[in-house]
Amino acid sequence: MKRTILITGATDGIGKQTAFRLAQLGHRIIMHGRNVRQGKKLRDLFRKETNNKFIEYVNADLTSFSDIEGLVEVLVHRNMIPDILINNAGVFQSELELVTDHKIEKTFMINYLAPFYLSYLLIPIMEEQNKQVIVNVSSMIHASHIDLNDVVNPTNFDSSKAYGASKLGNILFTKKMAREKPQLKINAVHPGVIDTKLLRSGWGGGGSDLNAGADQLIFAALELPQDTTGKYFEYSNEAEPAEAANDIKLQDGLYDLSMKLIPKSS
């Protein structure tokens, strides 16, 4: 069955390779990026190279709540509600940078709160159309703890801790939504240590090629049974995340914090 698949951060790295591979399989691909010219150029190239005309591009700055809302509006208007949402976009910030009126640390915003908000907006629409698969890209170096009182605008910013906390957040959200909506197939996946700009900026480089990362995202999106939900995967195998990821109180606390941060009209 051919699916409509939205991939955030699809103009570079693992997201780009995943989009290309899924397009080769004949799926309808919605590529998200934040540079219209680059995104449309890549869309046209992929259409030509894969002989798949069902490749679209949508633009949104994931540090902007209004842009995320606009992305969803475009999807609805163009009848492109995804069967599968892959929350892939991510950053590694070397310095503290605050975004939005709430002054939210950029790593937390892009890696965690943006996919939270995008999922929050899309899930009710996806449910109406019986489209209920979400893949959250996490990391095996997710943190063992997240301080809900200090994660939004940290007192002493540490880039590695901020990244790890955001990736723990992805798993906490995955498990929270699996509890709240058992009909939803939502899982978190570590894509592997892959040679991407993010890896080079945070850890100096190295790692496997992009196809290895794409393999993991495709596995989580297409190959898991429908009743597999709320799980964390490493290298195509279910893995046990940090103990904190299974803390229901922490899952609920992060969800409540997130609801306070997103626009009140939602």
TrEMBL record:
InterPro entries reported for this sequence: NAD(P)-bd_dom_sf, SDR_fam
Oxidoreductase in keyword set: yes
Pfam families: adh_short (PF00106)
Gene3D superfamilies reported for this sequence: NAD(P)-binding Rossmann-like Domain (3.40.50.720)
GO MF entries: 3-oxoacyl-[acyl-carrier-protein] reductase (NADPH) activity
EC number(s) on file: 1.1.1.100
Top EC group: oxidoreductase
Keyword Oxidoreductase: yes
Xref: PANTHER family: NAD(P)-BINDING ROSSMANN-FOLD SUPERFAMILY PROTEIN (PTHR24320:SF148), RETINOL DEHYDROGENASE (PTHR24320)
Gene (UniProt): fabG_4
Origin superkingdom: Bacteria
Name of the protein this chain belongs to: 3-oxoacyl-[acyl-carrier-protein] reductase FabG
Keywords carried by this UniProt record: Oxidoreductase
Family statement drawn from the similarity comment of this UniProt entry: Belongs to the short-chain dehydrogenases/reductases (SDR) family.
Naturally occurring in which organism (per UniProt): Salinivirga cyanobacteriivorans
